[in-house]
Amino acid sequence: MRVLIAYAVETNKPTCILTIDFKEAFDRISHSFLFLILKEYGISERFCKLLQKIYANATSTLTINGNISKQIHIHS
Fold it and tell me: How many alpha carbons lie under 13 Å from residue 75 in its C-beta half-sphere?
C-alpha cells in the first residue's frame, strides 16, 4: 500500500484506497444489508457487483477433533 501511496504522490494522481477487514469487520452484518449500505454511500454499482460475486455462495467448514463438517453457507 505504501508503494501505491508514494506513486499517487509522485504522479499527483487522485487516488482512492479502500481496505476491508474480512476477518471481523462484517461478521454480524448480513451480506444484503452490507451491499445496500455500500450503495447508499455512493460506492459504484460495478464495485458492489464485484463484491457480491466474492460473497456469492460463500461457504466454510469446521474441523473438530480431526473431522471435517459439511459445508456451511455464510450469510453474514
Answer: 0
